[in-house]
Write a structure and sequence with these properties.
alpha+beta, Alpha-Beta Plaits, 5-stranded antiparallel beta sheet, binds copper (II) ion
Amino acid sequence: MAAESTRFDHVTPLGYKRGVCRRADDEPAEGIDVIEANYTVTGMTCDHCARSVTDEISKINTVSDVSVNLPTGAVTVCSSEPVNDVDVRAAVEEAGYELATK
Ligand SMILES: [Cu+2]
């Protein structure tokens, strides 16, 4: 229903920050960094799209949390080590969407 609208608009600087990705139920041990990486995914149109992307990215080993802002396509990936853009791109494509590039 939604995957046909994949587009190739772009803008995606990667930003790494510390400590902004903690969840109450997944509190990392003290001294362990939680890294946030921001991406833009194009083509998502509904909650189902967002869930597919979240599920695929969540399969990456070091990823602890994924959040999607549907209207903007902004995807925040929280992980214990910097995620590899290639892995994120593959996950997004597996879900049927496109990772925007710079
Ligand atoms: Cu959808």
